[in-house]
Amino acid sequence: MSAEIGQLALILAFMLGLVQGVAPLLGAHRGDRVLMSLGRASALLQMAFVVLAFAALATAYVTMDFSVELVAKHSHSTQPLPYRIAATWGSHEGSMLLWVLILALHGGAIAFFGRTLRETLQARVLAVQGMLSAAFLGFCLFTSNPFSRLNPIPLDGTELNPLLQDPGLVMHPPLLYLGYVGFSVAFSFAVAALIEGRVDAAWARWVRPWVLSAWISLTVGIALGSWWAYYELGWGGWWFWDPVENASLMPWLMGTALLHSALVLEKRGALISWTILLAILTFSLSMIGTFLVRSGVLTSVHAFAVDPERGAYILVFILIATGSALGLYAWRAPAMRTGALFSPLSREAGITVNNLFLLAATATVFLGTFYPVFIDVLNGDKISVGPPYYAMTFAPLFVPLLVLVAFGPLLNWKRDTARAVLMRLRWPIAVTTVAAGVGIVAFGIAKVGAALGIALGVWLIAAAFMLLARRWGIGRKGAETGRLIRTTPLAFWAVAVAHAGLGVTTIGVTAMTAWTVSEVVTMVPGQTIEFAGRRVTLDALGPGTGPNYQADQARFRIEGGGQPFLMLSEKRFYPSSQTQTTEAGIRGEAMGNLYISVGESATLGGATVRLWWHPLVGWIWGGALIMAFGGVLSLSDRRTRLGMPVRKAAPAKAGRAAA
Amino acid sequence: MRRLAFIVPIVLFLMVAAALGLGLRRDPSILPSMLIDRPIPTFDLPGLTPEDTVGLASSDFTGKPVLLNVFASWCVACVIEHPMLLRLQSQGVTIHGLDWKDEPADGAAWLAQRGNPYTLIGSDPRGRTGIDFGVTGAPETFVIDGHGRVRYRHVGPITPEVWTETLQPMLARLDNET
Amino acid sequence: MKRFVLGLFCALLIAGPVAAVLPEEQLADPVLEARARAISQELRCVVCQNQSIDDSDAPLAADLRAIVRERLSAGDTDAEVMAYIVDRYGNFVLLKPPLDLETILLWSAPLLVLIPGGLGLALYLRRRSRAGGADPAPLSAEERRALADILKTGDAP
Hints:
The complex is a heterotrimer of chains A (659), B (178) and C (157). By secondary structure, chain B is an alpha/beta fold. Chain B contains 5 helices and 7 strands; from the N terminus they run αβββαβαβαββα.
């Protein structure tokens, strides 16, 4: 029953999406308030129906309704409840439903919270959002229906791919999709602004929190994916430049650029057409990402589906959506107000240069990802682009970018002088130089790259502290530091925290790249080896069981440098799907992770054991979380949040009393 | 001049979209063989059983166009392909076999069980000759002309469609050439 | 569908312990072994296609790793070893795409954005500051006191 309800809800949502796509656009054009309010109503109703459809699918999974084809393919009677729920989005059809859900939720939010917007603007935004919703709902209904039934009903299902039965991977798609689809709001706003022919401070103030929330989710989602790959895939890699990973990185890079560009637009009214272009490109990259994962145009271990037909549908849709948006851009953007002036040395200019580097980085990842397709189409040659390419192009781009990041928040708006900037940065420059020097001496000239990488991270963190110190008047005579600390706006904290987080990640990446140690050896039970300054003993090799798997377990005892501890690594076998996975033993410590992975059993009763020492690997994701937290701080600042009514000037007397 | 800058994004996008659209029709995982139009690599492999003293060598590939089929006893798709090969043999097509990354005894037993469609067979347990051919898996079939040059490689089992649409016309054409 | 199954197979292979070099494969000479590892990391496994042969558990990857070590032990240079494999499997196995006429666009990607973008930005800024007016007149003493007042109390007087 629930599947039929879901199906019906999906159909109704699709029709509402069509209404939402057309009515408010007409209404805004004609100034017809009834049509415009129809846009709001259909957005809210559509949201309700999509929520219903999603709930219906989730219910089918939870109740193990194997008559629903998707449930039969991705769930099993022994599958634990959290993974039955997560299986809702653990398939192509289910993940499209998740995509559509988030799209509808955002549309509903615009309808509900956007009452302070200019009515025509809100109407046009809802129209674009409605068109996007309708297209994706159509895709679901006509090519990827999650609610098809199976007849006869199987007794049990094929379980969810065991690789996906993992807490990290449960949260990974929802977070990523909140990011990808969250950028649709910026896209809709951009297209609406182009239709309207104008952009003002209210537009920017409205868009920024949505870009911020999408960016936060995407940051955490990518970090989660990287962390998951690290502990699940068995050898401690955390980024592989796989096409699907790149598909998530590109919107993130553009989204970061958009975030900063929107800031300039809001504060200074500059970079109008550039911000609109970024808003269009960011969501377009999200859509191209979803095209990539499902179409089979590139090989990837991540691919959800390899289906050129479905891929063609998505591509046509991207062609229409992005094509119209960019066409509108080419037509209308030149006529839009050009915005405020700023000097070549100013925060606006700094952010513009930052955007330029981010654009170059995105273009590099884009070309690296799609070049094999381009060449194949052009002359049938097959080439491949792997990590060595990105090491030579992406990394050199990011280094100057990171150096410049420290300057940004310490530059004045509109106009600044080189001397003043360097004076402001004298302490971070000093600290960084010392760090670099110490590094080169400590690690030797062979590792000068590593020393500089660490110094770069230190630079970012020091500049973040400097930002706060300046605000708090530390070292300035007569500054009321205590009061200044207490009255520091959250948005200000956010900048320092986020940029410091970037420094933390930089240090983690540098450490992992420069100082990872590994060893592969065959061990028998009772054997001890020396590794990374410890004694590692294989205590036992034996069987074990889990809720839906059997395992070959290897128990290790680690001694040396403190309390001895145990580590466990196992190879699991899932009988339902006949698949095998390896769970590595990971021990997190302050300076890094000890990582042990047991492999094939050798013939003499021993096993192949691989050991790694991963220095500061946790800083990679820790830094990302800190960055995301910075975003959350910014979002929590009431001045950033949407719908904030303009404060009326308080009468003078009350003002003085309050101060 | 400024207006031109605004047109750049859509132009670039349309080019990318066109490339992606065309790319949908291609299969990114199929690799063309590097040996096309080149002579086959030199090799001399023993047979699967002690009775087979001839084996398979590169010198066996002159005179007329033949097929070289890469198979193994562990290869599931080869089981599916096998009846097709027997049928081709009965039609007079010369197929030589390369038992790839397989113990000779296993390969021999597999053929004994299912029938032997091959005129000559070479045993390549270490897979080195396969690598010289650029083999990525089993089954694969090479079309080799009367001068010992590789003209085509098919990855995967030979289906009736593959035979009638690709391989048969190719062999016929090569026959005329020789 | 078949390719999806292959992809899944490869995904599960990756789920096994990778950096798949077994102890018995390693060369005795550490210099040669290091060269072998470095070369292996630049060669793509054609079966799984998204891993290097150093990382892949596929049997073909093991064979190719062995061949790399054989050629190195026979005295080939790094370039010769790579050429040996490329000769048999094509440019596709190079994880670092070659630099030739075809790939010039790919390799110059960063510069292609930075240089025109940078020039455009420079022109844009120069046009703006020429269009911008002279510096505003400095504040008078009156205005400065009023400003200090506002900053202290947070309100207009």
